[in-house]
Specification:
CATH topology: Rossmann fold
Largest sheet: 7 strands, parallel
Number of domains: 1
CATH class: Alpha Beta
Shape: globular
Length: 245
């Protein structure tokens, strides 16, 4: 499979590249030049012609592009950029598109502050933050494309990325209840690229990508069931209290 990665030099992108190496032929892009052994291009996702050119000859797109601040640029990347990427995938006849974003694209503060056992199936309530709203609008773009074109769009939602083990002074101090390691996040993207599309309930599916945590606030059951996602890193040293004897 030939895969185009947008935002390949951001927070998540390099880990996606690492997870896909040896499994896919990669074209890695970002808004500035990238030092990578793979084919690379400079691409501004807000420019449709650039995205269209980068998608030429590809089988699937993984959109890791993100901008969290500045109203106009956040919209240009998180919303317009997603539109451009999905449109390019459709025009090139791709059957699969992987989008990424924060968990509060679906479960904003109304859920996060009060509820437990939250799944991807709750009514989307991103709240009023710039990042959440622009990413949520991008996800709505994905939904509409999937309803009107023969393309499957899998949206993987993350929040807090962690290394597998904390620094000693951070052990037992707890962590965000929606957390995953970078390498498990990259593995989730690989699984989304490899899953048999015929096994999915619809052409637009959203997945919470978080490790198994004792908080009980968010569920990764859907990702486990449909993608075969089994996080290797349980992050126990972050949340398990040290015993004092």
């Amino acid at each position: 499979m030939k895969v185009l990665i947008l935002g390949g030099d951001g927070m998540l992108g390099p880990w996606v590249v690492e997870a896909l190496e040896g499994h896919c032929d990669l074209r890695v892009t970002d808004v500035s030049a990238i030092d990578t052994p793979h084919e690379s291009m400079v691409v501004d996702v807000a420019d449709f012609d650039q995205v269209m050119a980068a998608a030429e000859g590809m089988d699937a797109i993984v959109n890791c592009s993100v901008l969290r601040s500045d109203g106009k640029i956040a919209f240009d990347v998180n919303t317009l950029g997603t539109y451009n990427a999905v449109r390019a995938a459709v025009e090139h006849g791709m059957s699969r598109f992987i989008n990424t974003g924060p968990h509060f694209t679906v479960a904003g503060s109304v859920y996060y502050d009060f509820d437990y056992g939250i799944s991807e199936e709750v009514p989307a309530h991103p709240g009023t933050g710039l990042y959440a709203l622009t990413k949520a609008t991008g996800q709505e773009v994905c939904r509409l494309f999937s309803e009107n074109h023969p393309i499957h769009i899998l949206c993987l939602l993350f929040l807090n990325f962690k290394p597998p083990a904390p620094e000693p002074e951070a052990e037992g101090l707890d962590l965000n209840s929606f957390s995953v390691t970078f390498r498990d996040a990259g593995e989730a993207v690989r699984l989304a690229l490899e899953v048999d599309l015929a096994t999915l309930p619809s052409r637009n599916e959203v997945f919470f990508i978080t490790t198994d945590l004792p908080h009980g606030k968010f569920s990764n059951t859907k990702a486990q069931r449909l993608l075969g996602f089994e996080p290797r890193d349980k992050l126990e040293k972050y949340w398990r209290r040290k015993r004092a004897f």
